[in-house]
Design goal:
By secondary structure, this protein is mostly helical. Helix content is 53%, strand content 8%.
Length: 292
């Protein structure tokens, strides 16, 4: 079934989250106490820490800090960051400051950049291979044709969910799809903050709102993907049963399972995003120490 593929994705994300929290440990508390009030104001967006720009430097790359300390992503008001240097993290900002609202065009553009990033294609291939091995959505059967169908549905699920949550509903409801890094308090407090962002977001004007874009967007995506291109009930011919009946995946129960799994996966991803800057700093320090 569809929920198996999402379940594997959630499992991988959960392992990453556990590793992230273990690696951070108490460093989040230490980082807060050491930086003090410097973390209260505007912070640079998540990205590779860079040394202050030298005087006389005429131009800077898109990923380098500008005079305000902000990193410019390919879309204004976003970042060029990648989780673990690979996974697109363009909508995460290392700041709590109020930023200008994103236009609907920019919301769609940045979601498209992350959704169709080259790293996504092998990720979808892996999930499809796992689904093939588990015989998820059995109505597809086996073989390369079945694998192609599983790849198409896996990619479709990701694309639909990303756009519904990050672009369509934020544009309709005028909500901000960006995740604002906290850094305040210890690991438990920051974990709670990250989890709460599933239910709490900012409007384009900066006010706190219920995160309709996430909750309703994920539900809409689950319904669209389940009832549009996932397999109906069918009969398959197998060596032991030439007329084996396979039930449809287009059910309300499956839709609810997909919705819940997507929300769980997004929640785990937010926790990883919250602690990624700490992991990044640790990895950078180790790299510098090894280089010296």
């Amino acid at each position: 079934m569809l929920k198996k593929n999402l379940g594997w994705a959630a499992a991988f994300a959960g392992l990453i989250a556990i590793g992230t929290l273990s690696a951070v440990g108490q460093s989040s508390t230490d980082s807060t106490s050491q930086n003090g009030s410097s973390q209260q104001g505007t912070k640079p967006l998540v990205g590779t820490p860079a040394a202050p720009a030298k005087q006389g430097q005429a131009q800077q790359s898109p990923a380098s800090p500008d005079q305000n300390g902000d990193t410019k992503g390919k879309v204004e008001g976003t970042s060029n960051d990648r989780l673990f240097y690979t996974l697109p993290n363009f909508l995460t900002l290392q700041t709590q400051a109020q930023l200008p609202p994103m236009s609907s065009k920019d919301k769609f553009k940045v979601v498209a950049l992350g959704t169709f990033d080259p790293i996504q294609y092998p990720w979808w291939a892996l999930l499809s291979a796992i689904g093939q091995a588990d015989n998820s959505e059995a109505a597809f059967g086996q073989g390369w044709g079945a694998y192609a169908q599983r790849y198409g549905t896996t990619a479709g699920d990701s694309i639909v969910e990303n756009f519904m949550v990050g672009a369509v509903f934020p544009s309709i409801l005028r909500q901000d799809p960006r995740f604002y890094y906290s850094s305040q308090g210890g690991a438990m407090r920051r974990t709670g903050y990250a989890i709460s962002r599933i239910f709490v977001t900012r409007s384009d004007s900066g006010k706190k709102q219920f995160n309709y874009s996430e909750i309703i967007g994920a539900a809409t995506a689950a319904a669209i993907s389940t009832y549009s291109y996932h397999p109906r009930s069918t009969y398959l011919s197998t060596p032991t049963n030439p007329h084996m009946f396979v039930a449809s995946d287009r059910t309300l129960g499956n839709t609810l399972n997909v919705w819940g799994t997507q929300l769980s996966l997004d929640t785990v991803t937010l926790v990883v995003k919250e602690f990624w800057p700490d992991i990044h700093r640790k990895m950078s320090k180790k790299h510098k120490a090894a280089a010296n």
